[in-house]
Amino acid sequence: MTAFVQHFTFEFKTGLRNSTLLFMNYLFPLGVYAVMGLVMTQVNPFFSDSLLPAMIIFVILGSTILGLPSPLVEAREAGVYRNFKINGVPAASIVAIPVLTTTFHALIAAGIVALTAVPVFDGVAPNRWWPVAGIAVLTAFTCSALGALIGVVAANNRATTLLSQLIFLPSMLIGGLMVPLNMLPEAVQRFAGLLPTAHAMQAFEGLAYGRATTFAPTVSLLILLTSSLLAFGMAIYLFNWDSRNQTRRGHPLMALVVLVPYLVGMVL
Amino acid sequence: MNDTVIQVRDFRKTYGETVAVDGISFEVQRGEIFGLLGPNGAGKTSTLECLEGLRRADGGTLDILGVDPTRQARKLRNLIGVQLQTSGLPANMQVNEAIRFFCAYHDVAPRYDLVERLGLKDKQRSQYGQLSTGQQRRLALALAVAHKPPVVFLDEPTAGLDVESRAELHALVQELKAAGTSIILATHDMAEAEKMSDRVAILLHGKIVATGTPREITATGAGFTKISVRTEQSVLHQNGAAIPGVSRHLLEEDYAVYFSTDPGTSVTALLQYVNAHGDTLIDLRVERPTLEERFLEITGRQ
Q1: How would you class B285 by CB atoms within 10 Å of its CB: exposed for 0-12, middle for 13-18, buried for 19 or more?
Q2: Chain B stretch 61-120, residues whose beta carbon is closer than 8 A to a beta carbon of chain A
Q3: What is the spatial distance between Cα B297 and Cα B294, in angstroms, rounded to a whole number?
Q4: In 3D, which of A92, A85, A138, A106 has the Cα closest to residue A26?
Q5: Residue B31 — left, alpha, or beta (φ > 0 → left; ψ -120 to 50 → alpha)?
Q6: What is the reported pTM?
Q7: pLDDT in single tens digits along all 268 residues of chain A
Q8: Taking the CB of residue A73, how many other CB atoms lie within 10 A of it?
Q9: Nearest-angstrom CA–CA distance, B72 and B49
Q10: How would you label B198-236 residue by residue, b for 16+ Cβ within 10 Å and e otherwise?
Q11: pLDDT 10s digits, A220-253
Q12: Is B54 on the interface with A (CB under 8 A)?
């Protein structure tokens, strides 16, 4: 227990102490949020309707998908996990603790958005607040687990950037953050079903705002939950303490199993 | 009581077609410093990594106090301490945090005394990335021994250290040895290996090509003992003295220098020669071949 507390405390502090992580956890996403709140709500008044959930998802993406993977790759390349392994730090802790601390950072940033979007930027308040909290927690954990999985399977930092952008860019463009999902062409809506952010947005719309949604919000929650557990489990299973270690347990392509819930959702 | 702490028998490690270690055997006793020497690619790192439980052996047996490193990793972690050659710590981890973190995983109380002992007291709140190379290596050593393991692996422990830090680290290693800790020292620094090690093994192309105490290893080579003599009237400069055991000689400033395969006989003959010619001895130096010279002889020959 002491080891877990020490490890958790260190990783949490790292999220504030490391300038890159501080930027990705808070400065970048909250800076973009401020600009969107000031500018986008003036340019497009309809954006106020989705400002709160869209920006909650955006700040979560910043710390999880963009921020989490690179430090994992860098630590592996620097021999940190090699040292951890020798000293008995379990692979599960090496993966799980950064996932948890990143989830916490993401939720702190999301909390700042939730507290300020309505009074500061005239965002539309949800009908019910408790689903906002629940969906934010689930989305943060799902994206953290995905971020950890990217960090585990990526061979180097260039691959990390590529894989992160494969999720981040489509999420911004067709995930329902900037443009409501129901305004997109049907084929694009189907493709958006592969994105966790689209499901998170649908869950916010349906459960917190009581609006009509393209996907069934409870199914979206189920998809997020299943994929988060799959991503978390695969990140631990595929974890490799050293890039030179040739005896890893599975092929990195096994990570694609996290797409299964989204594909099932699309079919249904 | 059996004092063998590490037992390596016919150990073999391959990477695809490449044989990194080819059936080596050695033992390390309790309280012994065992030097593992060899050029790059000789198999040192593979041997260490398998003993540390980082890789699986492909043949033979490895045993550390009755524990198989590749199959009993959980039992192994409190038996060994490892000072890695590369950093192995997150750049933003503070010195005190590192002590707390590793001690917690070894289930022992934080060893802040080691921070003070290794001259890092003023750096307790400094992040690892802000420490100098020497400070980083001292911290790595502190972490390796914090849980008082009976076996410690030191990989290039003094690389990049200044003279003072090196002496401090050597003193700590000797303390560990006196307390019964067995130490495997992998180093390129032959002077350090010669000074610190009770026994050494020289690895080359995955095989042990020489093993024994540093004195035994230097004694078995074809290396010559260097005898330097300085006298008042430099009588040895003037005459071509025939000294038994000497294969060649030369003049270096005020010294007549002889290379001998039989230093005892040669020194006696030189002193008799100086006396017989009415000269007076000012300085006499006898330098045995160093481990480095013997190492270069072995590795060069092969």
Answers
A1: exposed
A2: 74, 77-78, 80, 82, 84, 86-93, 97, 100-102, 104-107
A3: 5
A4: A106
A5: left
A6: 0.83
A7: 689 999 999 999 999 999 999 999 999 999 999 999 999 888 888 889 999 999 999 999 999 999 999 999 999 998 899 899 888 899 999 999 999 999 999 999 999 999 999 999 999 999 999 999 999 999 999 999 999 999 999 988 899 999 999 999 999 999 988 888 888 998 899 899 999 999 999 999 999 999 989 889 999 999 999 999 999 999 999 998 887 666 667 888 889 999 999 999 888 7
A8: 22
A9: 14
A10: bbbbbbbbbbbbbbeebeebbeebebbbbbbbbbeebbb
A11: 999 999 999 999 999 999 998 887 666 667 888 8
A12: yes
Q: What is the DSSP string of B140-157?
A: HHHHHHTT--SEEEEEST
Count CB neighbours of A109 within 10 A. 25
Nearest to B6 by CA among B205, B175, B152: B152
What backbone torsions phi and psi does residue A206 show, to the nearest 5 degrees?
-75, -45
Helix (H, G, I), strand (E, B) or coil at B227: strand
Residue labelled with tokens 């260190």: A10
Q: What are phi and psi of B10, to 5 degrees?
A: 50, 35
Identify the closest residue of chain B to A15 by CA–CA distance. Answer: B92
Angle (CA) B88 B93 B99, round 5°: 80
Kindly identify which residue of chain B lies nearest to residue A72, measuring between CA atoms: B90
**Mean of pLDDT over chain A:** 92
Nearest to A10 among B86, B101, B106 (CB): B101
Question: What is the ipTM for the molecules in this complex?
Answer: 0.86
**Of B289 and B72, which is predicted with more confidence?**
B72
Q: Which residues contact A71 (CB under 8 A, 6 or more apart)?
A: A14, A18, A20, A21, A98, A151
Q: What does the H/E/C string look like for B38-53?
A: CCCCCCHHHHHHHHCC
Alpha helices in chain A (DSSP H): 2-17, 19-22, 28-35, 41-43, 47-61, 69-77, 80-86, 91-121, 130-153, 157-174, 186-192, 196-203, 217-238, 260-267
